[in-house]
Amino acid sequence: MSTPVALVPGLGLGPESYDPTRQHLEIPSEVVTLPGYGEPVTPGDDLHVEALADRLATHLKEPSVLVGHSASCHVVVEAAVAHPGLVSGLVLLGPTGDVEASGWPTLAGRWVRSAVWERPYLIPTLTKQYFRTTFRAMARAEQVARHYDLAAALPRVGVPTVVLRCPHDHLCPPQWAQRVADLAGGEAWTLPTGSHMPVLTNGRELAAFIHRAAGVYKAG
User: Fold this and answer.
1) 55: three-class secondary structure by DSSP
2) Mind listing the domains of the chain with CATH numbers?
3) In sequence order, what DSSP letters do the residues of 89-157 get, joined into one string?
4) Which of 19, 95, 170, 174 is placed for a possible disulfide with 113 were both Cys, Cβ 3.0 to 4.6 Å?
């Protein structure tokens, strides 16, 4: 029997960002959108990671594997800490959250170094999703997220954790991915290709790791 999966889009991305992954999943899955992470922000939205984690938890009806991408990794980690009975495992894709590298100039520089490796065919879909979420909403959400100390939360995660990154992802460098995994008592892997958008470029590989996290072992 497999465990259900809840996927939270990365900052500014829409629910369709997980389509390349979900088309390879053979287990129940749901994309959960949150303000700034799949849906626009309204004036009354509380964008603190703790509040978003509580909103995520309302969508979980049974223990689930939570999948986060980039800044939404903060949300799924906090959900595992605050609602341990509802989380059976974590898959963290290109997690950010290093408060020692959270200044705007550092983040911008890492984003540019990652973006130059993204495939040109992603531009239309990324543009559509970012404009729907709005850049103002993304800025508000990132302003809060960049102050969340992921490293401090990770030792309180009590579920199996897998950290995945791509070789050209400068927002999640290898030493940070390994530190995230070590703090959570989990494992870190670098995929063969890609940058900071594995949800769009490495769907088949991500699905394989999600299957394993959910207790599904497939031949080949």
Assistant:
1) helix
2) 5-71+81-159+182-192 (3.40.50.1820)
3) EEEEES----GGG-SHHHHHHHHHHHHTTS-GGGHHHHHHHHHHH-HHHHHHHHHHHTT--HHHHGGG-
4) 170
Average pLDDT, stretch 182-211? Answer: 97
What percentage of the chain exceeds 90 in pLDDT?
82
Between CA 79 and CA 191 the distance in angstroms is: 26
For position 219, what pLDDT does the model report? 42
Q: Which are the contacts of 102, defined by CB distance < 8 A and separation ≥ 6?
A: 146, 147
Q: What pLDDT does 126 receive?
A: 93
pLDDT tens-digit readout, 117-175: 998 889 899 999 999 999 889 999 999 999 999 999 999 999 999 999 999 999 999 99
Please calculate the CA angle 218-208-193 and round it to the nearest 5 degrees: 140
Radius of gyration for the alpha carbons in the chain, expressed in angstroms and rounded: 16
pTM of the model: 0.94
Half-sphere exposure of 179 (CA within 13 A, CB side): 16
Beta-strand pair 87-93/64-69: parallel
Token code pair at residue 59 = 């969508």
CA-wise closest residue to 65 among 11, 150, 7: 7
Question: Is the CB of residue 65 less than 8 Å from the CB of residue 210?
Answer: yes
User: With bands split at pLDDT 50, 70 and 90, how would you rate the model's confidence at 46?
Assistant: very high
